[in-house]
Amino acid sequence: SFEDTTTRVTPLFLPEHWDAATLEGWNYYTPLQNQTFPDWGSPVNVNGYQVAKTGDAYAGIKYYSLYGSSRNPRREYMQVQLNRSLVFDSTYCFQLYISLADSMHFASKNMLGIYFSSNAVSGNHREQLPYTPQLVVSPNTYITDKVNWVKIDMQYQAQGGEEYITIGNFNDTNYIDTTFVPGGGDQFWMQASYYYLDDIWLSHCDSLPESLVTGLNEPLLKQKFKGYPNPFVSQ
Questions:
Q1: CA-CA distance, 144 to 80, in Å (whole number)?
Q2: Do residues 94 and 156 lie in contact, with contact meaning Cβ atoms separated by under 8 Å?
Q3: Quick one: which of 94, 97, 72 has its CA closest to 193?
């Protein structure tokens, strides 16, 4: 939930353990910034007002900018190393909460991807990373809610050895899908699709938070039980 309370001399522009995969960076909103850097404060900041889903802090990431006469190639990517490598053929549950920032004019669908990899990926630039995410948030529905946190639940079957997740818009600029949402701000850079993120969670599905358990138990049990070796003799 991005609750970073580490004392630092420099501003807390990114929470502990998290990095930016390109030079473009992303945003971290925390009440520890309210006095010295209020643009990156919480719950009020440069992009709107939002109370954190859990705790006091949360992240913000721009999917796509729509100002200017040409398509904007800039991308923001969040990256973190997992606590342990994923196990081959295991099914993991992934959950996050998302909210469209108040000042933004465009909601999106099929744009926020989660890419699992065995090594950290990066680019010495500010543009699209050339990877195909295994999970994509809200492929069919625009997320337009600026007031509430929208819960996203997905499942991932591991290839084995994945140690990093990278979160961002991996789409080519020819495949950007947005819709106008009234009520945005008056700055030119608010002509964009930008979301707050909180409570990013990845683990085995049998350790789901209570909010995830209902409705998933039966299909998960069917996945978890396997007979091996095949054929077998007595056990």
A1: 27
A2: yes
A3: 72
Average pLDDT by stretches of 10, the chain with 235 residues: 78 86 94 91 96 96 84 88 96 96 96 97 94 96 97 96 97 87 93 96 80 49 56 62
Own/partner pairs for 141-145, CB < 8 Å, 24+ apart? 141/109, 142/107, 142/108, 142/109, 142/178, 142/179, 143/98, 143/100, 143/107, 143/108, 143/109, 143/195, 144/100, 144/107, 144/179, 144/181, 145/99, 145/100
Alpha-carbon distance 18 to 132, whole Å?
21
pTM of the model: 0.86
- DSSP state for residue 86 in the 8-state scheme: P
User: CA nearest 166: which of 21, 32, 55, 61?
Assistant: 21
The Cα angle at residue 115 between residues 29 and 57, in degrees rounded to 5: 15
DSSP 155-202: EEE--S---EEEEE----GGG--EEE-SS--SSGGGSEEEEEEEEEEE
**C-alpha torsion 213→214→217→218, nearest 10:** -170
